[in-house]
């Protein structure tokens, strides 16, 4: 599932939700956000919407269903479109 989101004063970005199907055990969900540029990502981090969304969660334990959180930064090397 992919959805494209428009934020005020910030360039478009794409959120991809990937769910790894498993037969037994816990499913793995990966959320990937791709920004138009690193500068746009930095604008989002400093935006009022981002700050407000995280402010209320400081000091709270993560929900039980979240086993692990990893944050990584990748650079896109190649994009191919099937036209």
- Give the structural class: alpha+beta
SSE arrangement, N to C: EEEHH
Fraction of residues in H or I helices:
10-25%
Low-confidence stretches: 1-7
Globally, the shape reads flat
Mean pLDDT: 76
For this structure, the quaternary state is single chain
Number of helices: 2
Cross-sheet strand order for the largest sheet: 1-2-3
Strand content: 25-35%
**Largest sheet: number of strands, sense, barrel closure:** 3 strands, antiparallel
Let me know the number of strands.
3
Rounded radius of gyration (Å): 16 Å
Q: Distance between the terminal alpha carbons, to the nearest Å? A: 20 Å
Task: Explain what this protein looks like in three dimensions.
- It comes from Shimazuella alba.
- InterPro entries: ABM_dom, Dimeric_a/b-barrel.
- Pfam families: ABM.
- This is ABM domain-containing protein.
- A three-stranded antiparallel beta sheet has the order 1-2-3, covered by helices on one side.
- It has a domain at 2-55.
- A hairpin with a 2-residue loop joins strand 1 and strand 2.
- The longest helix is centred in the middle third of the chain and has 9 residues, at 38-46.
- The model is unreliable at 1-7 (pLDDT under 50).
- It is α+β, with helices and mostly antiparallel strands and 83 residues long.
- It contains two helices and three strands, in the order βββαα.
């Amino acid at each position: 599932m992919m959805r494209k989101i428009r934020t005020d004063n910030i360039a478009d970005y794409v959120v991809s939700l990937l769910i790894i199907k498993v037969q037994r055990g816990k499913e793995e969900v990966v959320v990937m956000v791709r920004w138009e540029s690193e500068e746009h990502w930095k604008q989002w981090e400093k935006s009022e919407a981002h700050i407000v969304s995280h402010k209320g969660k400081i000091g709270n334990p993560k929900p039980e269903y979240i086993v692990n959180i990893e944050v990584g930064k990748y650079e896109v090397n190649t994009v191919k479109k099937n036209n």
